[in-house]
Amino acid sequence: MKVIICHLFYFLLVSLPLEANSERTSKVAGRLADVLVSDDEIRRQSSKLSTQLKEQTRQNNQILLERLSLFIDDEEDKSRFTQDFLQLSLQMEEELVKRLESELGLSVFMKETTVEIYSREFTDEEIAQLGRFFTSPVGKKYLRVSPLVLEEIVEATQKEIVPKILQVQNTLQNDYQIKFRELHSQFVEQ
Predict the structure, then answer these.
(1) C-beta separation of 78 from 33 below 8 A
(2) How many CB atoms lie within 10 A of CB 96?
(3) 101 and 7 in a common domain
(4) Does residue 140 form part of some domain?
C-alpha cells in the first residue's frame, strides 16, 4: 500500500493544474508525454500496482476465510471449503488484474493526463527544453531513479516520523485517559 501511495503521490506532484495554453503546446506536450510516460514505465507501474492489489486481496480473503471457517463444524467440510475458497480467491486475483488492465485504460489515461497538465503548466519552449532534458542521459536517469528516490524519501519519513507520531499519540492517550477517568469519577460519585 505504501508503494501505491508513493506512486500516486509522485504522479500528483506533476498534476497541479493551472491555465491552459495553446493547442500547439498540447501537441508538443504529447511528444513529451511519450518520453515521460513510456510503455515500459506503464507496464512497470501496472505490474507493481497489480502485485500490491493481489497481495491486498489475498490478505483480505484470508481474513474472510478464517471468519467463514468458524461456522463450519465438520473438519472434512472445512477442508473442502478452504480448498474451494482458495481456488475462488486465486480466480478473483487474476480477474482483478485483467479488469484493471482492460477497464482502467492506464496507458491512455496517463498519457492524456500528462499532456493536459504539461500543456497548462509550460509554454512550447519550456516543453521543448524539458523534452531535450528528458531525452538526455541525465534526464533518462532522472526518469529512471526519481520514483525510487521518492519511495526512499517516503520510507525514511515513515521510519523517522511514524514512531514519533505513535509516541505523541501514546502520550496523549495516557494524559487523556487520566482526564477521562477524572471526568467519569465526577459522574459516578454523584
Answers:
(1) no
(2) 15
(3) yes
(4) no
